[in-house]
Amino acid sequence: MSISGTDAYDKALHLPPLVERALAAARAHGFPYSCRPEQGRLLHALASGADTLIGETGTGCGLGLAWLAEGARPGVRLVSVERDPERARVAAEVFADRPEVEVLCDDWRRIEERGPYDLLVLDGGGTAKTEDDSPADPARLLAPAGRIVIDDFTPATDWPPLHEGAVDRARLYWLRHSALKTVEIPIAEDLATLVGTRRRLAGTETAWQGFEQGQIVRGVVSRIESFGVFVDLDGTEGFITAPELSRHHFDSFDEVVHGGQEITAEVLAFELFRPQVRLSLAALAPDPLAEFARNAGVGRVVRGPVTKVAPFGVFVRVAEGVEGLVHRDTLTDRAALDVGDELSVEVTDINLVRRRVVLTPLP
Ligand SMILES: C[S@@+](CC[C@H](N)C(=O)[O-])C[C@H]1O[C@@H](n2cnc3c(N)ncnc32)[C@H](O)[C@@H]1O
């Protein structure tokens, strides 16, 4: 956290448009703790290396998220969690016309439902900086070679690094984490950031302990947690994240699996630091979006229920397991729409890579 983060932009020149917008929101709401421009420019550069997904804890009014969104390549999705409802609302407004950006109002642990992340910025939870802030787990949350960023350190001059006269345990935790190669980057005279890259173990990633990527295995569901499902593979731990559980929408894990259930899954990867086998049930199911593209396709008129109302539009279910976005600019009467309302729409675009369906409402 930077006490004077928002004020530090008073002298900043040439800010990207989305950053200007988030800055105006932070100023209008008197939020002082935005990330500083030096940190923002670092986030902008790091975001350009992400392939699929970027996460952030502690959205504030969205300054850091704006830098990330401006730096990210097309098709990359961003998700940020803010526990303060007013800030979450303000930040969601900032990104209202950026459907690739999602702001969730919740505790930072909600970030564990998604992932793995190519880039994860810890700026409000998961940093290990205070006794009551338990650290995020990079082995679980990062994709191989994914990066984690923890900012707002004073550049270290001693070893071990000190904070207020005592050993800086948070900094040591990240610098010594066995799953990471972490470096400290001084970005201003009084400010340093830690950037950790998840280690790869060369040659061991496609096969491990008799398991192979792509192999179909059977196991028993041993535990269901808020962040995923544990599977016993004859003594080896398997793990399934929410997106890998089903291609269909579900609200809670026990709609898909239950404790003690025997399941068949595909091996995706290995978490050698835990150690653990990452599994997917969804990979074995037919892809409803590909089916929809093949059978229904662009130009088709469909009637379906609104499943989610977002600041940038509404999502409508157009087939089992397939939802499309009706952008708010195309809606004449969006205030009246609610979850469950039926809407007739035309399918105007399907993108299988970005897994996106664009819909236009019909009168
Ligand atoms: C330093 S500010 C974030 C600044 C923002 N990332 C930016 O770049 O402008 C920290 C934010 O984290 C939020 N926060 C703190 N603890 C949190 C938690 N456990 N879960 C979610 N948000 C949290 C605070 O409400 C605050 O808005």
Automatic annotation (TrEMBL):
Q: Which domain of life is it from?
A: Bacteria
What protein am I looking at?
S1 motif domain-containing protein
Per the record, the coiled-coil ranges are none
Matches recorded under PANTHER family: PUTATIVE (AFU_ORTHOLOGUE AFUA_6G01830)-RELATED
Describe the location of the S1 motif domain by residue ranges.
214-282, 299-362
Origin species, per record, is Streptomyces shaanxiensis
